[in-house]
Amino acid sequence: MNGGRARALPMVIRDPALPDEVTIYEVGARDGLQNEAAVVPVEVKAEFLQRLARAGLKVVEATSFVHPRWVPQLADAADLLRTMVRVDGVDYPVLVPNERGLDRALAAGVRHIAIFASATETFAKRNLNRTLDEQFAMFAPVVERARMEGLRVRGYVSMCFGDPWEGAVAPAQVAAVGRRLVEMGCDQLSLGDTIGTGTPAHVDAVLDACAADGVRIRQIAVHFHDTYGQALANTLTALRRGVTTVDASAGGLGGCPYAESATGNLATEDLVWMLDGMGIRHGVDLDALVATSTWMAAQLGRPSPSNVVRALAHS
Ligand code: HMG
Ligand code: MG
Protein backbone atom coordinates (compact mmCIF):
# COMPACT_ATOMS: atom_id res chain seq x y z
CA MET A 1 0.00 0.00 0.00
CA ASN A 2 1.20 3.51 -0.74
CA GLY A 3 0.28 5.08 2.59
CA GLY A 4 -1.87 7.77 0.94
CA ARG A 5 0.71 8.85 -1.67
CA ALA A 6 -0.66 9.59 -5.15
CA ARG A 7 0.35 6.98 -7.67
CA ALA A 8 3.47 7.78 -9.68
CA LEU A 9 3.02 9.47 -13.04
CA PRO A 10 5.55 10.36 -15.72
CA MET A 11 6.04 14.09 -16.40
CA VAL A 12 4.44 14.85 -19.76
CA ILE A 13 6.73 16.40 -22.34
CA ARG A 14 5.64 16.45 -25.98
CA ASP A 15 8.16 15.71 -28.69
CA PRO A 16 6.98 17.21 -31.98
CA ALA A 17 8.93 14.57 -33.91
CA LEU A 18 6.59 11.86 -32.60
CA PRO A 19 3.02 11.06 -33.68
CA ASP A 20 0.09 12.61 -31.72
CA GLU A 21 -1.68 9.29 -31.44
CA VAL A 22 -0.73 5.61 -31.51
CA THR A 23 -2.94 2.58 -32.04
CA ILE A 24 -2.02 -0.17 -29.64
CA TYR A 25 -2.66 -3.57 -31.22
CA GLU A 26 -3.06 -5.82 -28.18
CA VAL A 27 -1.79 -9.39 -28.70
CA GLY A 28 -1.77 -10.81 -25.15
CA ALA A 29 -4.74 -13.12 -25.61
CA ARG A 30 -3.21 -14.66 -28.73
CA ASP A 31 0.58 -14.27 -28.69
CA GLY A 32 0.59 -14.49 -24.89
CA LEU A 33 -1.70 -17.41 -24.29
CA GLN A 34 -0.49 -19.49 -27.27
CA ASN A 35 2.75 -19.92 -25.38
CA GLU A 36 1.42 -20.99 -22.00
CA ALA A 37 2.28 -24.52 -20.94
CA ALA A 38 -1.20 -24.94 -19.49
CA VAL A 39 -4.35 -24.41 -21.52
CA VAL A 40 -6.23 -21.45 -20.08
CA PRO A 41 -9.98 -22.17 -19.70
CA VAL A 42 -12.17 -20.52 -22.33
CA GLU A 43 -14.11 -18.54 -19.68
CA VAL A 44 -10.86 -17.00 -18.43
CA LYS A 45 -9.87 -16.05 -21.99
CA ALA A 46 -13.28 -14.45 -22.54
CA GLU A 47 -12.97 -12.44 -19.35
CA PHE A 48 -9.42 -11.41 -20.29
CA LEU A 49 -10.62 -10.10 -23.66
CA GLN A 50 -13.47 -8.23 -22.06
CA ARG A 51 -11.22 -6.62 -19.45
CA LEU A 52 -8.70 -5.59 -22.12
CA ALA A 53 -11.43 -3.95 -24.19
CA ARG A 54 -12.93 -2.23 -21.14
CA ALA A 55 -9.47 -0.87 -20.30
CA GLY A 56 -9.70 1.08 -23.56
CA LEU A 57 -7.79 -1.09 -26.04
CA LYS A 58 -9.44 -0.72 -29.43
CA VAL A 59 -7.75 -3.61 -31.24
CA VAL A 60 -7.60 -6.85 -29.30
CA GLU A 61 -6.32 -9.91 -31.17
CA ALA A 62 -8.53 -12.66 -29.85
CA THR A 63 -7.16 -16.06 -30.91
CA SER A 64 -5.95 -18.17 -33.87
CA PHE A 65 -7.70 -20.49 -36.28
CA VAL A 66 -4.59 -22.61 -36.79
CA HIS A 67 -4.37 -26.38 -36.64
CA PRO A 68 -5.42 -27.36 -33.10
CA ARG A 69 -2.61 -29.94 -32.95
CA TRP A 70 -0.03 -27.24 -33.72
CA VAL A 71 -1.30 -24.84 -31.06
CA PRO A 72 -3.54 -26.73 -28.60
CA GLN A 73 -3.63 -23.66 -26.33
CA LEU A 74 -5.93 -21.94 -28.84
CA ALA A 75 -7.93 -24.97 -29.98
CA ASP A 76 -11.04 -23.43 -28.39
CA ALA A 77 -11.08 -20.50 -30.86
CA ALA A 78 -14.63 -21.14 -32.11
CA ASP A 79 -15.97 -21.60 -28.58
CA LEU A 80 -14.26 -18.43 -27.46
CA LEU A 81 -15.71 -16.35 -30.28
CA ARG A 82 -19.17 -17.82 -29.65
CA THR A 83 -19.16 -17.06 -25.92
CA MET A 84 -17.12 -13.88 -25.51
CA VAL A 85 -18.86 -10.57 -24.84
CA ARG A 86 -17.77 -7.96 -27.39
CA VAL A 87 -17.34 -4.34 -26.42
CA ASP A 88 -18.75 -1.87 -28.98
CA GLY A 89 -16.17 -0.23 -31.22
CA VAL A 90 -13.48 -2.81 -30.48
CA ASP A 91 -11.89 -4.76 -33.30
CA TYR A 92 -11.07 -8.44 -32.57
CA PRO A 93 -8.72 -9.80 -35.28
CA VAL A 94 -7.69 -13.47 -35.36
CA LEU A 95 -4.77 -15.35 -36.91
CA VAL A 96 -5.54 -17.43 -40.00
CA PRO A 97 -2.84 -19.39 -41.86
CA ASN A 98 -4.81 -21.02 -44.67
CA GLU A 99 -8.19 -21.51 -46.31
CA ARG A 100 -9.33 -24.02 -43.71
CA GLY A 101 -8.58 -21.41 -41.05
CA LEU A 102 -10.45 -18.77 -43.05
CA ASP A 103 -13.51 -21.02 -43.31
CA ARG A 104 -13.49 -21.43 -39.54
CA ALA A 105 -12.98 -17.70 -38.95
CA LEU A 106 -15.80 -16.73 -41.33
CA ALA A 107 -18.12 -19.24 -39.66
CA ALA A 108 -17.32 -17.50 -36.35
CA GLY A 109 -18.25 -14.08 -37.78
CA VAL A 110 -14.72 -12.65 -37.82
CA ARG A 111 -14.22 -9.36 -39.73
CA HIS A 112 -10.45 -8.92 -39.45
CA ILE A 113 -7.81 -11.58 -39.97
CA ALA A 114 -4.02 -11.75 -39.81
CA ILE A 115 -1.95 -14.06 -41.94
CA PHE A 116 1.57 -14.72 -40.69
CA ALA A 117 4.53 -15.16 -42.99
CA SER A 118 8.16 -15.88 -42.25
CA ALA A 119 11.12 -13.87 -43.50
CA THR A 120 13.24 -17.02 -43.37
CA GLU A 121 13.14 -20.45 -44.95
CA THR A 122 13.70 -22.34 -41.71
CA PHE A 123 10.94 -20.65 -39.74
CA ALA A 124 8.49 -21.00 -42.66
CA LYS A 125 9.10 -24.73 -42.40
CA ARG A 126 8.91 -24.91 -38.63
CA ASN A 127 5.93 -22.62 -38.12
CA LEU A 128 3.89 -23.32 -41.24
CA ASN A 129 5.23 -26.59 -42.63
CA ARG A 130 5.88 -24.75 -45.91
CA THR A 131 8.91 -23.44 -47.80
CA LEU A 132 9.32 -19.68 -48.08
CA ASP A 133 7.69 -19.72 -51.53
CA GLU A 134 5.00 -22.21 -50.57
CA GLN A 135 3.84 -19.91 -47.77
CA PHE A 136 2.76 -17.30 -50.35
CA ALA A 137 0.85 -19.94 -52.30
CA MET A 138 -0.96 -20.80 -49.05
CA PHE A 139 -1.77 -17.17 -48.21
CA ALA A 140 -2.79 -15.86 -51.65
CA PRO A 141 -6.24 -17.48 -51.82
CA VAL A 142 -6.85 -16.60 -48.16
CA VAL A 143 -6.20 -12.91 -48.76
CA GLU A 144 -8.19 -12.90 -51.99
CA ARG A 145 -11.27 -14.49 -50.44
CA ALA A 146 -11.00 -12.43 -47.26
CA ARG A 147 -10.93 -9.22 -49.32
CA MET A 148 -13.91 -10.40 -51.36
CA GLU A 149 -15.78 -10.92 -48.08
CA GLY A 150 -14.87 -7.36 -47.04
CA LEU A 151 -12.50 -8.44 -44.25
CA ARG A 152 -9.48 -6.46 -43.15
CA VAL A 153 -6.22 -8.34 -43.56
CA ARG A 154 -3.03 -7.83 -41.62
CA GLY A 155 0.18 -9.55 -42.73
CA TYR A 156 2.73 -10.46 -40.08
CA VAL A 157 6.34 -11.07 -41.05
CA SER A 158 8.26 -13.09 -38.46
CA MET A 159 12.02 -13.26 -37.85
CA CYS A 160 12.58 -9.77 -39.26
CA PHE A 161 15.50 -9.11 -36.89
CA GLY A 162 17.18 -12.49 -36.63
CA ASP A 163 16.34 -16.18 -36.70
CA PRO A 164 17.46 -18.70 -34.07
CA TRP A 165 18.42 -21.24 -36.75
CA GLU A 166 19.70 -19.02 -39.57
CA GLY A 167 21.20 -16.14 -37.56
CA ALA A 168 21.20 -12.71 -39.18
CA VAL A 169 18.38 -11.90 -41.60
CA ALA A 170 19.05 -9.33 -44.34
CA PRO A 171 16.73 -6.30 -44.15
CA ALA A 172 16.24 -6.61 -47.92
CA GLN A 173 14.89 -10.14 -47.41
CA VAL A 174 12.39 -8.85 -44.83
CA ALA A 175 11.32 -6.08 -47.19
CA ALA A 176 10.88 -8.52 -50.08
CA VAL A 177 8.57 -10.74 -48.00
CA GLY A 178 6.67 -7.72 -46.70
CA ARG A 179 6.22 -6.29 -50.15
CA ARG A 180 4.76 -9.55 -51.44
CA LEU A 181 2.19 -9.49 -48.64
CA VAL A 182 1.23 -5.90 -49.47
CA GLU A 183 0.97 -6.76 -53.17
CA MET A 184 -1.20 -9.72 -52.25
CA GLY A 185 -3.66 -7.29 -50.61
CA CYS A 186 -2.70 -6.98 -46.93
CA ASP A 187 -3.79 -3.61 -45.49
CA GLN A 188 -1.13 -3.62 -42.83
CA LEU A 189 2.26 -5.25 -42.31
CA SER A 190 3.43 -6.12 -38.82
CA LEU A 191 7.20 -6.53 -38.62
CA GLY A 192 7.97 -9.14 -35.98
CA ASP A 193 11.12 -9.36 -33.89
CA THR A 194 10.10 -12.85 -32.89
CA ILE A 195 13.18 -13.56 -30.76
CA GLY A 196 13.84 -10.00 -29.61
CA THR A 197 17.40 -9.61 -30.92
CA GLY A 198 16.85 -6.31 -32.77
CA THR A 199 18.28 -2.98 -31.63
CA PRO A 200 17.32 0.57 -32.65
CA ALA A 201 19.73 1.04 -35.56
CA HIS A 202 18.57 -2.31 -36.89
CA VAL A 203 14.97 -1.07 -36.77
CA ASP A 204 16.03 1.89 -38.90
CA ALA A 205 17.73 -0.45 -41.37
CA VAL A 206 14.63 -2.64 -41.73
CA LEU A 207 12.35 0.38 -42.14
CA ASP A 208 14.78 1.82 -44.73
CA ALA A 209 14.69 -1.46 -46.66
CA CYS A 210 10.87 -1.50 -46.57
CA ALA A 211 10.72 2.11 -47.78
CA ALA A 212 13.18 1.31 -50.58
CA ASP A 213 10.83 -1.51 -51.63
CA GLY A 214 7.86 0.85 -51.79
CA VAL A 215 6.09 -0.11 -48.53
CA ARG A 216 4.51 3.00 -47.01
CA ILE A 217 5.36 3.73 -43.37
CA ARG A 218 1.66 4.18 -42.54
CA GLN A 219 1.08 0.56 -43.50
CA ILE A 220 3.70 -0.71 -41.07
CA ALA A 221 3.15 -1.89 -37.51
CA VAL A 222 5.93 -3.10 -35.23
CA HIS A 223 5.85 -6.24 -33.12
CA PHE A 224 8.73 -6.47 -30.69
CA HIS A 225 9.40 -9.30 -28.27
CA ASP A 226 11.35 -8.11 -25.24
CA THR A 227 13.75 -11.04 -24.83
CA TYR A 228 16.83 -8.79 -24.61
CA GLY A 229 15.10 -5.72 -23.14
CA GLN A 230 15.17 -3.81 -26.43
CA ALA A 231 11.45 -3.64 -27.21
CA LEU A 232 10.73 -0.16 -25.89
CA ALA A 233 13.86 1.42 -27.44
CA ASN A 234 12.99 -0.26 -30.73
CA THR A 235 9.42 1.03 -30.50
CA LEU A 236 10.58 4.59 -29.91
CA THR A 237 12.81 4.31 -32.97
CA ALA A 238 9.85 3.17 -35.06
CA LEU A 239 7.66 6.01 -33.71
CA ARG A 240 10.32 8.52 -34.74
CA ARG A 241 10.09 7.08 -38.24
CA GLY A 242 6.32 7.66 -38.34
CA VAL A 243 4.99 4.23 -37.37
CA THR A 244 1.67 4.67 -35.53
CA THR A 245 0.59 1.08 -34.79
CA VAL A 246 2.45 -0.79 -32.09
CA ASP A 247 1.80 -4.39 -31.04
CA ALA A 248 2.04 -5.10 -27.34
CA SER A 249 0.89 -7.68 -24.88
CA ALA A 250 -0.78 -6.96 -21.55
CA GLY A 251 1.58 -7.79 -18.71
CA GLY A 252 4.27 -8.81 -21.21
CA LEU A 253 2.74 -12.22 -21.81
CA GLY A 254 3.98 -14.08 -24.80
CA GLY A 255 6.33 -15.97 -27.02
CA CYS A 256 6.00 -18.32 -29.93
CA PRO A 257 5.65 -22.08 -29.51
CA TYR A 258 7.73 -22.68 -32.66
CA ALA A 259 10.61 -20.35 -31.68
CA GLU A 260 11.87 -21.46 -28.30
CA SER A 261 14.06 -18.43 -27.76
CA ALA A 262 11.02 -16.10 -28.03
CA THR A 263 9.78 -14.67 -24.74
CA GLY A 264 7.08 -12.14 -24.04
CA ASN A 265 6.13 -9.19 -26.19
CA LEU A 266 6.65 -5.58 -25.26
CA ALA A 267 4.36 -5.15 -22.24
CA THR A 268 1.39 -2.92 -23.04
CA GLU A 269 1.74 -1.19 -19.67
CA ASP A 270 5.39 -0.28 -20.35
CA LEU A 271 4.36 1.13 -23.73
CA VAL A 272 1.48 3.10 -22.20
CA TRP A 273 3.80 4.62 -19.59
CA MET A 274 6.19 5.83 -22.29
CA LEU A 275 3.37 7.17 -24.50
CA ASP A 276 1.85 8.98 -21.50
CA GLY A 277 5.17 10.63 -20.72
CA MET A 278 5.42 11.90 -24.29
CA GLY A 279 1.80 13.08 -24.42
CA ILE A 280 0.87 10.61 -27.17
CA ARG A 281 -2.82 9.62 -27.16
CA HIS A 282 -3.68 5.91 -26.97
CA GLY A 283 -7.02 5.65 -25.17
CA VAL A 284 -5.96 3.11 -22.53
CA ASP A 285 -6.72 3.39 -18.81
CA LEU A 286 -3.41 2.27 -17.31
CA ASP A 287 -4.83 1.40 -13.87
CA ALA A 288 -7.54 -0.79 -15.39
CA LEU A 289 -4.93 -2.48 -17.57
CA VAL A 290 -2.57 -3.14 -14.64
CA ALA A 291 -5.50 -4.61 -12.69
CA THR A 292 -6.25 -6.87 -15.68
CA SER A 293 -2.66 -8.07 -15.98
CA THR A 294 -2.40 -8.64 -12.23
CA TRP A 295 -5.61 -10.70 -12.38
CA MET A 296 -4.28 -12.66 -15.41
CA ALA A 297 -0.95 -13.29 -13.66
CA ALA A 298 -2.89 -14.79 -10.75
CA GLN A 299 -4.78 -17.06 -13.19
CA LEU A 300 -1.45 -18.21 -14.64
CA GLY A 301 0.18 -18.57 -11.23
CA ARG A 302 3.21 -16.34 -11.81
CA PRO A 303 3.99 -12.63 -11.69
CA SER A 304 3.93 -10.40 -14.74
CA PRO A 305 7.38 -9.59 -16.18
CA SER A 306 6.24 -6.01 -16.95
CA ASN A 307 8.17 -3.36 -15.01
CA VAL A 308 5.18 -1.04 -14.94
CA VAL A 309 2.80 -3.75 -13.72
CA ARG A 310 5.23 -4.62 -10.92
CA ALA A 311 5.80 -0.99 -9.96
CA LEU A 312 2.14 -0.01 -9.94
CA ALA A 313 0.70 -3.22 -8.52
CA HIS A 314 2.85 -2.72 -5.41
CA SER A 315 2.75 1.06 -5.13
P1 HMG B 1 -0.03 -28.86 -42.17
O1 HMG B 1 0.16 -30.02 -41.27
O2 HMG B 1 0.93 -28.67 -43.31
O3 HMG B 1 -1.53 -28.82 -42.70
O4 HMG B 1 0.01 -27.56 -41.25
P2 HMG B 1 -2.15 -29.37 -44.04
O5 HMG B 1 -2.49 -28.20 -44.91
O6 HMG B 1 -1.26 -30.42 -44.64
O7 HMG B 1 -3.48 -30.07 -43.52
C1 HMG B 1 -3.40 -31.23 -42.69
C2 HMG B 1 -4.69 -31.41 -41.93
O8 HMG B 1 -4.87 -30.33 -41.04
C3 HMG B 1 -5.95 -31.44 -42.83
O9 HMG B 1 -6.86 -32.33 -42.18
C4 HMG B 1 -6.49 -30.06 -42.68
O10 HMG B 1 -7.88 -29.94 -42.87
C5 HMG B 1 -6.13 -29.73 -41.26
P3 HMG B 1 -7.14 -33.78 -42.79
O11 HMG B 1 -7.63 -33.51 -44.18
O12 HMG B 1 -5.79 -34.45 -42.76
O13 HMG B 1 -8.11 -34.34 -41.84
N1 HMG B 1 -5.97 -28.28 -41.10
C6 HMG B 1 -6.63 -27.50 -40.22
N2 HMG B 1 -7.52 -27.78 -39.26
C7 HMG B 1 -7.99 -26.73 -38.55
N3 HMG B 1 -7.61 -25.43 -38.77
C8 HMG B 1 -6.70 -25.13 -39.70
C9 HMG B 1 -6.18 -26.20 -40.46
N4 HMG B 1 -5.27 -26.24 -41.46
C10 HMG B 1 -5.14 -27.49 -41.83
N5 HMG B 1 -6.35 -23.87 -39.92
C11 HMG B 1 -0.59 -25.30 -40.81
C12 HMG B 1 -0.04 -26.27 -41.82
C13 HMG B 1 -0.37 -23.89 -41.35
C14 HMG B 1 -2.06 -25.56 -40.61
C15 HMG B 1 0.17 -25.50 -39.46
O14 HMG B 1 1.53 -25.39 -39.71
C16 HMG B 1 -0.22 -24.51 -38.40
O15 HMG B 1 -1.35 -24.53 -37.91
N6 HMG B 1 0.71 -23.62 -38.00
C17 HMG B 1 0.42 -22.57 -37.01
C18 HMG B 1 1.62 -22.29 -36.15
C19 HMG B 1 1.31 -21.13 -35.23
O16 HMG B 1 0.16 -20.82 -34.94
N7 HMG B 1 2.37 -20.47 -34.72
C20 HMG B 1 2.21 -19.34 -33.84
C21 HMG B 1 1.69 -18.11 -34.53
S1 HMG B 1 2.96 -17.22 -35.40
C22 HMG B 1 3.67 -16.17 -34.19
O17 HMG B 1 3.41 -16.33 -33.04
C23 HMG B 1 4.54 -15.04 -34.65
C24 HMG B 1 3.87 -13.66 -34.52
O18 HMG B 1 3.51 -13.39 -33.17
C25 HMG B 1 4.79 -12.57 -35.05
C26 HMG B 1 6.21 -12.63 -34.44
O19 HMG B 1 6.37 -12.63 -33.22
O20 HMG B 1 7.13 -12.67 -35.27
C27 HMG B 1 2.57 -13.61 -35.36
MG1 MG C 1 4.86 -12.60 -31.70
UniProtKB/TrEMBL annotation:
Example GO molecular function: lyase activity
NCBIfam families, per the entry: PRK05692.1 (NF004283)
CDD domains: DRE_TIM_HMGL
Keywords: Lyase, Metal-binding
Domain Pyruvate carboxyltransferase: 22-290
Similarity comment: family membership: Belongs to the HMG-CoA lyase family.
The organism of origin for this protein: Pseudonocardia alaniniphila
Record protein name field: Hydroxymethylglutaryl-CoA lyase
Top-rank taxon, per record: Bacteria
